[in-house]
Amino acid sequence: MAFDPVQKILAVGTQTGALRLFGGAGVECYCQHESGSAVIQLQFLVNEGALVSALADDSIHLWNLRQKIPAILHSLKFNRERITYCHLPFQSKWLYIGSERGNIHIVNVESFTLSGYVIMWNKAIELSSKTHPGPVVHISDNPMDEGKLLIGFECGVVVLWDLKSKKADFRYSYDEAIHSVAWHHEGKQFVCSHSDGTLTTWNIRAPAKPAQIITPHGKQPKDGKKPEPCKPILKVEYKTTRAGDPFMVLSGGLSYDTVGRRACLTVMHGKSTAVLEMDYPIVDFLTLCETPYPSDFQEPYAVVVLLEKDLVVIDLGQIGYPIFESPYPLAIHESPVTCCEYFADCPSELIPALYSVGSRQKRQGYSKKEWPISGGNWGQGSQTYPEIIITGHADGSIKFWDASGLMLQVLYKLKTAKVFERARGKEEKPNTDIVDEDPFAIQTLFWCPESRMLCVAGVSAHVIIYRFSKQEVTTEAVQLLEVRMQCEFSEVDSPDLGGEQTPTQPASAAPSSPQETEPPNQLSAGTNSTEGPRDNIPCLQVRSSPLKQSPGYQVELVVQLVWVSGEPPQQITSLAVNSSSGLVVFGNSNGLAVVDYEQKTLLLNLAISELYSPSDHYQKQPCSPRKPRQPSGGLCDSNDGSNNAEDRCKSPTSGSTSPCNSDDERKQNFIEKGTVSFSACGLLNSSKSLKG
Question: GO molecular function of the protein, one example (predicted)?
């Protein structure tokens, strides 16, 4: 990583040669080196809009960041030596390149050519070591004198080199390998981190021995002996403050007995030592300071930590060192996207409404300060109409994005998994054979921007209907409707074109009064059966405790398909909502169901065979209980026929106008409400019949 303290821009290099530039919210740029080699180091030309990158293929590149699309101005390739370290002093035109052979080459940044000045390893160490010192692991200039260069070799030798006289002023030797070096801003002391977990502090005019040796995580023996060795301290930074004790930030150095412990960043300030555990291994870190001048008090205020799968920024100004909440839309560690929907020309008040409820979703434990990487300007998009993208994720979360500008911005996040009980252990796995993992993953969704109704289908054969509200509510019991959907082909596999069709039994029929046999919050629709080891059991268990729902989308109804005679329910593949009629229709490989989410009632439940007319060929296709996820598609196609709207509302076997035979009112409600809903959704045409 590299950071421009004036422009407030962060640069991150990757193993694939990519270069990502981060600024304030919405400011992000992606570049790529043609070679695809890993980026090993980055150096900003501070406040000049330029960046130097060093790659693993021993090439260095100068990027121009002042133009709209960053581009490489100059490149230089080393053929005989491997690049191990680069250093560009503040406001200097000389770039120092350390090599694996221990030599240092100097490049003119303006012309991007070698100057001819080479510091040879044997002249740098002379008689301080009888063997090769190893690769150059550190180069830096004295904060008070740019003409003095500090060179660190892997073997433990550090050399203070005078560029004008072309000779070493002092040599410092320690019996442990060096990983990094950091200066005190006054230029009189520097700190080295070593492979045995120690930190050595040296006075530049006292090269005989270190002024101080500490092992931050080592156990100090009572007899005064040397502490037990620890893991290597891979990097250390030493930053001073005008008002108090300096900060020393380091990665690594933990005791060897901390087996299995996650990667840690250690912050030492005065007499306090804080160990901050990270979710992933640490790749690099940088301490952000108020002043860009190395010869002044740095005043550190944050630490940027690059992890293998994340990027976090730690606030050094608050107790406990909380992290900043990232403003970037696509966090590296987010759950994979499983479905995506795009909406254009949405109502003008919709984005402000989603942003209003989303802005209240600030998570606890974050810094109260603004994101410190604030450089760049966020341009405005060319669209004159609002655009929204909704993504469903493998962990059951849903995100609403503002796509009207140049960059995606998160408006609101919804977690559907809150509706269900969480398994507390391996023995409490969900009752599903549909998916091996991610039981809450979003399969498909349907959203009505005008009414703001949201309907979500998950991979565990469940549908959740949400209603938008600006008020916080506490739901004592989540309303649940269980649907028994099965496909029966015991008598015929294909309709007989030449003779009279034997009518099949309807997939299910609603009980006369589900409220009498089920708890108030759980409605059941379907025929009870005692066959098979599992029957009438949903894949997920809806939570029984009260659910506190924040402003935004709140649960209206949960619909779950249940096991039938030992067979798990099929995944839902199609979904549609008519919010004006309060109806939701969904289907899978077994059939189709229509639910009135206002009355919490199942109106229609048809098997695939019932959707065919006698003149249609139909062959039962084998279906697997582990049906792969499919994108949202059309629920049905139309086929020429003469059936009118009223006939289509009848069950093939009962002849009644509704499969819900509980009372006349529900029959009439379905005829008047359901038929209108079908036409409005585009699922049925008045002159055509359904085709599966």
Answer: myosin II binding
